Amino acid sequence: MSNNGSSSRLGPGGLDLTNTFFKPIQNSDPPIPSNRCTKVSVIGVGNVGMAIAQTILTQDIADEIALVDAKPDKLRGEMLDLQHAAAFLPRTRITASVDYEVTAGSDLCIVTAGARQNPGESRLNLLQRNVALFRHIIPPLAKSSPDAILLIVSNPVDVLTYVAWKLSGFPVNRVLGSGTNLDSSRFRFLIADHLDVNAQDVQAFIVGEHGDSSVALWSSISVGGIPVLSFLEKQQIAYEKQTLEDIHQTVVGSAYEVIALKGYTSWAIGYSVANLAYTILRDQRKIHPVTVLARGFYGVDGGDVFLSLPALLGRNGVVAVTNVHMTDEESEKLQKSAKTILEMQSQLGL
């Protein structure tokens, strides 16, 4: 990875810290310089897709937003509703079509479209229906915007990110999923709430599957730069492991609770994905726990499995994966989570 401005070396002729903290993504495309307007396409104008589009619009992240959906009336209605707010928003061109040609020249394509689970339907059958849907979405997106970054939000996000990678033919750095970025935000909120501090001062990651086998990295949590668990141990302050597990299970169940109460989730995922879009399009080089190709990282092997790891993101997509500390127990749980996802992938026949 190249550096601009400040040096990555510590002391005269010292250690190069970049390669110590991060493990670069292999076989990735070089960054594509561009001075043109920024274009984002959102595929699927349901509750999640529109929350993402609205947040990107209000935060002035893109110069143009293209919306795509299979339902032309709803699509046009959503487009008009946003356009009518033009006097109150940053100047952004908003277009919409059922034809993927409207996405041509996109810098970032965000896919939220997906089939809903029918009563009594197996998870595998739902996944296979979503794979069939992706066969109609990903190839035309890749054809219209061959230099774009694909950001998958549809669930199950880990497996569908793998599907998008396979169907697009894009290099691994330009295909990622929203993964546990929102799970980690929920995690940080709960820890902050326990300690009565601002969630932005909490550094904490949920990794692995965006689902039941996710892994909370308690060993690397810090608040205001203070490693929490090692601090408690040094101060000889006792804590219950069950309390930690209860917090993690609350994170896992958060989406289910919101869905039970209001019927769907939208605002939190909208902010989460818009935050990812900002990091990528503005080349912020921030670390987010997102779905990436995990083979070769943290002992994950056995196949091309996609799951969430703390990754450095920039204008070229996934720049590197962070060498965050994990205990042996956390590493074993991550590898188990990878096997869970691989088992699902193996039944797709891709």
UniProtKB/TrEMBL annotation:
<dbReference type="InterPro" id="IPR001236">
    <property type="entry name" value="Lactate/malate_DH_N"/>
</dbReference>
<dbReference type="Pfam" id="PF02866">
    <property type="entry name" value="Ldh_1_C"/>
</dbReference>
<feature type="binding site">
    <location>
        <begin position="44"/>
        <end position="49"/>
    </location>
    <ligand>
        <name>NAD(+)</name>
    </ligand>
</feature>
<keyword id="KW-0560">Oxidoreductase</keyword>
<dbReference type="GO" id="GO:0004459">
    <property type="term" value="F:L-lactate dehydrogenase (NAD+) activity"/>
</dbReference>
<dbReference type="InterPro" id="IPR001557">
    <property type="entry name" value="L-lactate/malate_DH"/>
</dbReference>
<dbReference type="InterPro" id="IPR022383">
    <property type="entry name" value="Lactate/malate_DH_C"/>
</dbReference>
<feature type="domain" description="Lactate/malate dehydrogenase C-terminal">
    <location>
        <begin position="180"/>
        <end position="343"/>
    </location>
</feature>
<keyword id="KW-0520">NAD</keyword>
<dbReference type="InterPro" id="IPR011304">
    <property type="entry name" value="L-lactate_DH"/>
</dbReference>
<feature type="binding site">
    <location>
        <begin position="153"/>
        <end position="155"/>
    </location>
    <ligand>
        <name>NAD(+)</name>
    </ligand>
</feature>
<dbReference type="InterPro" id="IPR036291">
    <property type="entry name" value="NAD(P)-bd_dom_sf"/>
</dbReference>
<dbReference type="InterPro" id="IPR015955">
    <property type="entry name" value="Lactate_DH/Glyco_Ohase_4_C"/>
</dbReference>
<protein>
    <recommendedName>
        <fullName>L-lactate dehydrogenase</fullName>
        <ecNumber>1.1.1.27</ecNumber>
    </recommendedName>
</protein>
<feature type="domain" description="Lactate/malate dehydrogenase N-terminal">
    <location>
        <begin position="38"/>
        <end position="177"/>
    </location>
</feature>
<feature type="binding site">
    <location>
        <position position="130"/>
    </location>
    <ligand>
        <name>NAD(+)</name>
    </ligand>
</feature>
<feature type="binding site">
    <location>
        <position position="69"/>
    </location>
    <ligand>
        <name>NAD(+)</name>
    </ligand>
</feature>
<comment type="similarity">
    <text>Belongs to the LDH/MDH superfamily. LDH family.</text>
</comment>
<dbReference type="Pfam" id="PF00056">
    <property type="entry name" value="Ldh_1_N"/>
</dbReference>
<comment type="pathway">
    <text>Fermentation; pyruvate fermentation to lactate; (S)-lactate from pyruvate: step 1/1.</text>
</comment>
<feature type="active site" description="Proton acceptor">
    <location>
        <position position="210"/>
    </location>
</feature>
<dbReference type="InterPro" id="IPR018177">
    <property type="entry name" value="L-lactate_DH_AS"/>
</dbReference>
<dbReference type="GO" id="GO:0006089">
    <property type="term" value="P:lactate metabolic process"/>
</dbReference>
<dbReference type="GO" id="GO:0005737">
    <property type="term" value="C:cytoplasm"/>
</dbReference>
